[in-house]
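Re: the 311-residue chain
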Amino acid sequence: MRNTIVMFIAAGCILFLGAVQGTAGASVVVDRVVAIVNDDIITLSDLQREEALKKSDAKLDERLLLEDMIDRKLQMAAAKRTGMDVTDKELADAVSDIMKRNSFDANQFEAALKKEGLTLEQYKTELREQMTLSRMFSKYVRTGIAVDEAEARAYYERNHGVFSLPEEIRMRQILFPLSQHATEAQSAQIKAQAQAVFERARNGEDFLKLVREYSTGASSQDGDLGFLQRRHVMPEIEEATRNLKPGEFAGPVLCAGEYHIIKIEEMRTPVKPFEKVKDEIMSTLYQEKMENTYRSWLQTLRSDSHIENRL
């Protein structure tokens, strides 16, 4: 009996969209059924109208669009079975509220819809569906979903990489400044001195002792530059230290009128504190739970239904 009903409905929806002109060469555009959902159908023209409503410049995947239409049919049918579909009065009140909020009278409202390619009845049909789907989503998906802080903290611990900040390096340096008026010989002498100190450091001498002995720059901090993101380091120094590991040296590097001998003290990839990202994590987990619940609910609706996708 079900198959007979479905076939009858399908046959009744073979619509002629082009008129027969009475000549042998006249073309006829025929609509066709692209999906059957229980005792309801979706036609090609329905699908094309849905594509037009999306108003997307990108090419839409028709099969995915049709699957979405099938899911909506299932939800609308479930709403009707459970008495959760939107009544005519609720729909009329919603339309009235929309008109009021936009300061439209009836004529202005219909004119605005016409600009969007819609009649009032088409708009009401779409609005009823949106209201019903929202009601169903709230009852069967959103209700009961919650995320506690323990879940958020566990997610944070599992996904430190997601919350990592750019890598930072801590450097210590010895500076050998060049005078603006230094002769070539004087510059060569300073470079040679810097090279000699560099070799001593590389051969194992205490770098902090060398800093205190030779550096004329940041001696008050023992040459410690603290942690810096690589993008904040002078380009010449960043290039010279790019492949170094903690405990290794670079130099002499000529930069900003000074020779630098650099030691990499530490490297780290800092992570945003949990309190800074807690709300973001809880929102992410809440969204994930809603999506999983929604997919599970749709699967239940599909498993209890007769569906044919004919694309």
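Residues 208 and 222 are 7 Å apart (CA to CA).
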